[in-house]
Amino acid sequence: MALTYTDLIEVDLGRLGSAVSDWDSTVKGLKTLAESARTGMLAKSDAARWAGVNATVTRGFVAETAKEISDLHTEAGSIHHVLDDAHTELVSLQKQIRAAQAEARKWGISVQDYGDGTVHCVYPHIRGDTDVRTTEENTARDELAGRINRILAHAAEIDASVTRALNKSHGNDAHNAGHSSYDSLDDAQAERAAELAELGPEMSDKQYLELNSIMKFNARDSDFSTDFYKSLGGPKDALEFYGRMSLNGTIGDDKDRLALTRQLQKNMGLALASATDPDNKSHLPASWSSEFRKLGTQPIQLYPAGSAPYGYQLLGGMLRYGNYDARFINPIAEHIVQLHRKDPQRFMGNKPMAPGSDLDWGFNPSGRNGAGYDPLTSVLEGLGHSPEAAKKFFTDAPTVYKEDGTVDKNATLGYSYFDELNKTDFEWAPDSLAHAGSDEAKHARETGADALGHALEAATTGAAWDADPPVLRRDEQTADVMQKVIDRYNVASEGGPPPEIMKDSLARMGAAYIDDLNYSIDDFGGSGDPLNRNAHFGQSSDGSKRTSFGEDPAANFMMLVAGDADGYQTLASAQQVYMGSGLAAFENDEDNANLFAQNAAKVNGILDESRSHGIREEFKDDETTKGMETTKQGEWRKTLMTGVVTAVAAGGTALVLGPAAGIVATTAVPVLLGTGASAVSTAYGNHTMQYLQDTEYKNDPQALQAVQGMTSIGQRAVTQPILSYAETTGMNDNDAKNFVNAIEQSYLAGKQKISSNEEASQ
């Protein structure tokens, strides 16, 4: 019978807590009794000078009795450990689900209990209501349903694990104690996971589902993950298990099996990250990392008559998931890059012939960015989910590795990983089973560049590239990597343009550094520091200090990124939020508000003219399409803030913009805080967003008549918040006019900066 929403809401866990206390007392009592039996009757029996049949029988009986008492103590201890852990976890889950219930009431959402361990969330129909919900309301409903169902699934897994552990501890034998014993619920779950893993590809879908359920909720627990990987054997055994499961799940067209394999890939990656973190209390020995490097270039025979993939091809599938410690993943990443430089096609030589059109057959069941034969793409994806490791990878001094993965202490590398991977002519391996020359093979070469973009996102922002919500953790090292990105990718770079597939990553990095881009532009003729620009850049929401990338490099970077439609929308959205936060922060400081707004207007001009330039370049021979693209861009700007999905990122480091803002993925934007503020509070975030929404464009006839073309829309996007600020602060008409005039000149200066670049490039 399934554990239901109602069950978890209403169950009295106090009774389970009492049972835990009772078992604790039982354990203590049996410990005393077992000690007495060992030092009392058993010791006396062993010391007695008996002889004959009766003595043998009596000694055996006493020894068996003492052992049974000891076994009862062990069994009671096992039961206590399991129940205690279960009680702790269920209490936490009950608190979470009751909090979700309260949130549902706040939104007016009805949580419908299906009775099978899942729920459905709906807004009840109210008579006379249109039942039309805002984006924010629908997002809240969907997020709530997902959260409740995850909590229920976790509770159900605990319930099943406890039942299984208690049965094994008891052994279903009332006359014989001494069966399975556990020091924790993790022990019991790891044991069951190991039993299932031993079946390998012979696992039924039901057993596979059970394994994934156990791992899903325990992969990040180092006690569990360490025990699980040890149960597989050593590093080679772990690679063999993953390899067989990957091939089994990606061959053919069994969608259910593929879904199970994808979940296993993620679970094993998360568990490996947890088990290899030396800062965790439980972790695998450091030798696992060196052994993985040794196995990386060795063929691993998965089946007697099948192909033998290299160790790195197998390991790469797991590395794509999990936040890895730099001490584990970076030596592996360095080794792989060095091997790739010597022979870019090294790992492509053992690709099997794809059975039919089964192009996803391989070691990356997720299907994202390659089939899993190129470990470089895989390890870059791993760095994309490991921010601290990614930062160190691009900033720390490199270590040279030999073919077998051991350190070459007498060698120097002679190049940086950033420069190597960002070379214009860098040769990415075609990570696909598609035949050479096909469209699929061409796309496969692009996946490596996409993974590089993800690694750079993690290294510059301090958050996994696909974190939702992302949390900015910027420091001097992340800014150093961002400086390298800006110097390499800009319209004046001799290294050439970025791969098309990397542009979304560059845009998100730009949004995460929108404050520093503004700061960099505020330096005309090197006047920024002498005129104390720091005074009107206040405090950043993530507590970081401002970094100047140089006025021209910053403008050239924005011209490159904002020339693309998606890149422009990401940066323009970020700039709108950042400008709004600054005006909100300086409501009581007119002088700094004026200086801040003038510079922000210049950045707006740079972005608008960059996109105009991009449109002219993209459609230089097609006036009709050029006009349509300009109109579309203008329409987007008119409704920029309509339906924006926003949230305050965890830790109060940024405002998070969702796709409703016209950007391609969830993006963190640092904001400028008022004096004395240390984080973005929900209230401050709401204030900033309301400020922007109050000055947004409305899609009404008057607005459409008043605003013609992208240029006018860009001007109004800058002017409207300024007029609102003037009204909010009670500025007189003359001062307001002077303010707007200054803003106009700044905006035009930004546009002119890009126009000059365009003329110079012709």
Poorly predicted residue ranges = 699-708
Number of helices in the DSSP assignment: 28
* Head-to-tail CA distance between termini: 73 Å
Tally of DSSP β-strands: 7
Largest sheet: 3 strands, antiparallel
Rounded Rg: 31 Å
Assign an overall shape.
globular
- The protein's oligomeric status is single chain
Relative helix content = 55-70%
Give me the side-by-side strand order of the main sheet: 4-5-6
User: Please, what is the average pLDDT?
Assistant: 84
Structural class from helices and strands? mainly alpha
Strand content: under 5%
For this entry, give a set of tags.
762 residues, mainly alpha, 3-stranded antiparallel beta sheet, 28 helices
Walk me through what this model shows:
- The protein is mostly helical and 762 residues long.
- It contains 28 helices and seven strands.
- The strands form three sheets. The protein has a three-stranded antiparallel beta sheet with strand order 4-5-6. A two-stranded antiparallel ribbon has the order 1-2.
- The relative contact order is 0.05.
Architecture blueprint of SSEs:
Blueprint: H1 5-10, H2 13-39, H3 41-47, H4 53-107, E1 110-113, E2 119-122, H5 135-170, H6 185-197, H7 205-216, H8 222-232, H9 235-250, H10 255-275, H11 287-296, H12 311-319, H13 326-342, H14 375-384, H15 387-395, H16 417-421, H17 439-461, H18 476-488, H19 503-512, H20 514-521, E3 539-540, H21 551-562, H22 565-585, H23 590-618, H24 623-638, E4 646-648, E5 655-657, E6 667-669, E7 672-673, H25 682-694, H26 701-706, H27 709-728, H28 733-761
Brief summary:
The chain has 762 residues and is an all-alpha fold.
